[in-house]
Specification:
There is one protein chain. It contains six helices and nine strands. By secondary structure, it is an alpha/beta fold. The strands form three sheets. Strands 3-4-9-8-5 form a five-stranded mixed sheet, with helices on both faces. Strands 1-2 form a two-stranded antiparallel sheet. Strands 6-7 form a two-stranded antiparallel sheet.
């Protein structure tokens, strides 16, 4: 079948297109979400609500990698036009997956960002302690706050610059805070496809 429906408005599009032109234009015209918590800054393409929620969940749980790559491409194009990204970063670090030895969405987004910005990619810079790979599903908020990370980047920790952390979706921001803590609370920028309005607030 050569045609499919747009993931936002369900209009008919060629199967390889994924999003119709009006919806793609809408994403480009939507302001990036920028939030600050101490020395940690978060930039998101979308807010998790309404149509965006359906779009993001199609990527996250529908395992739609072409759509994931398209949204990452839009995020990077918007960043390039709105924010100076050159000569700023020490490297790209994905938030580790809950299952050890796997490659999740954060990994694939990080590869794409590393290639685009021409900066080093450190897929194993952070690791979860043994026994931490149980996933977040069905856990209470208190249990999720117990997520810890260990850094293997000690030799880079004193270098001036900013780490670029990457996750696919940020809900509470607690995992992100723990990841940044493992890096020594250095200045860091996190890129994500979507986050909630209250992310990192009152944590």
């Amino acid at each position: 079948m050569l045609v499919d429906s747009c993931f936002i408005c369900t209009a008919l599009v060629w199967k390889s297109v994924l999003l119709c032109k009006p919806c793609r234009k809408l994403l480009f015209e939507t302001n990036l979400l920028i939030r600050q918590q101490g020395n940690l800054e978060i930039i998101s393409l979308l807010d998790i609500k309404g149509v965006a929620r359906t779009l993001i969940y199609e990527c996250k749980y529908g395992k739609n990698l072409p759509l994931l790559h398209m949204l990452t491409e839009i995020l990077l194009e918007k960043l390039a036009s709105e924010i100076s990204m050159n000569g700023k970063f020490l490297g790209v670090i994905p938030i580790p997956p809950t299952k050890i030895g796997t490659k999740d969405h954060a990994y694939y987004i990080s590869v794409q960002i590393s290639d685009f910005l021409k900066i080093p990619f450190y897929p194993n810079a952070l690791k979860r302690p043994l026994g931490a790979h149980t996933g977040q599903k069905n856990k209470s908020l208190a249990e999720r706050t117990n997520v810890k990370f260990e850094s293997v980047l000690d030799k880079y920790s004193q270098n001036p610059g900013v780490w670029l952390l990457v996750d696919d979706v940020i809900t509470t921001g607690l995992t992100l805070l723990e990841a940044n803590k493992a890096l020594g609370n250095q200045d860091a920028l996190c890129l994500t496809l979507a986050s909630r309005p209250y992310v990192l607030l009152n944590t």
